[in-house]
Write a structure and sequence with these properties.
Elements (H helix, E strand, L loop, with lengths): L7 E4 L5 H14 L11 H15 L3 E7 L2 E10 L15 E9 L8 H15 L4 E3 L7 H6 L14
Parallel strand pairs: 4-5
Antiparallel strand pairs: 1-2, 2-3, 3-4
Helix pairs in contact: 1-2
């Protein structure tokens, strides 16, 4: 039996940003978002967001490659906050993990786990005291295995 090649994990470079944006788009499609629900200029939106986050929020992405092709990606940055941040950063600095995606043919091989670990290590390295994310229902077990717990985030759906 021929085993598929093991992925190589590396820090993403700015030239990888279009693939990371594509993965973010595919993630939403995989979650059931119809094409008409996604902004037509989604790629420009993603690339602008990544550029801003890299320049101001210490964003870093990681990719998994097989035979030179990127088959998975994940990124994270300092969380910019939803309200005035009055707590000292040394006591509470959130990092936000987002865009974890692995091509369907490579899923269930530990790739998303390793990409998540790399982002968490980056966020810890820039001083984040807590890592937060929004998990798709199918991904919750992955994050729970890595030590993520339920939070006090509450939602009220209006549509």
């Amino acid at each position: 039996m021929v085993m598929p090649p093991s992925p190589i994990f590396r820090v993403a470079a700015p030239q990888d940003d279009p693939v990371i944006a594509q993965h973010f788009y595919r993630m939403w499609r995989d979650l059931g978002m119809a094409d008409g629900m996604i902004q037509p200029h989604w790629q420009a939106i993603c690339l602008d967001f990544i550029d801003h986050a890299r320049g101001h929020l210490q964003y870093q992405a990681f990719v998994a490659e097989v035979a030179g092709a990127i088959i998975g990606s994940a990124g994270g940055q300092r969380f910019d906050g939803l309200y005035p941040w009055i707590i000292a950063y040394s006591d509470r600095q959130y990092g936000y993990l987002w865009g974890v995606y692995v091509e369907p043919d490579y899923r269930h091989r530990g790739i998303a786990t390793r990409l998540t670990q790399l982002v968490v290590e980056h966020l810890q390295g820039i001083g984040c005291t807590k890592v937060v994310l929004n998990a798709a229902p199918k991904a919750r077990p992955l994050y729970q295995r890595l030590g993520f717990g339920d939070s006090n985030l509450m939602e009220l759906n209006r549509k």
